[in-house]
Write a structure and sequence with these properties.
- The structure is a single chain.
- The chain contains 6 helices and no strands.
- The protein is mainly alpha-helical.
- About 20% of the residues are buried.
Length: about 100
């Protein structure tokens, strides 16, 4: 399990509708994230900006594993990072 839905709902004040809207927004905004990350390789600022924006939303979604990877700067292994991201994305997509 990559997403703790109950935790995410708790982070948004217990409002399930807000949480669901956040999930929908995440799915739309991060649809092409892997491509953006791969294109940003070699551009440290662009890479930082992409990952940093994901960090906040990961926490609010209850995507603890993804959040911890980013928080602890454990995204040097790009394939592992993208694997966790893609699994998180797909889990949210299936839940909506």
């Amino acid at each position: 399990m990559y997403v703790n839905r109950n935790l995410g709902i708790e982070y948004v004040g217990g409002y399930e509708k807000i949480y669901n809207n956040l999930c929908i927004s995440f799915l739309k905004s991060y649809e092409d994230f892997e491509e953006k990350i791969r294109n940003a390789l070699g551009d440290e600022k662009a890479l930082f900006d992409l990952v940093h924006s994901l960090k906040g939303i990961a926490l609010n979604l209850g995507a603890e594993r993804l959040y911890e990877l980013i928080k602890n700067n454990k995204f040097e292994d790009l394939e592992e990072f993208l694997n966790v991201f893609n699994n998180t994305y797909n889990e949210i997509k299936q839940a909506i």
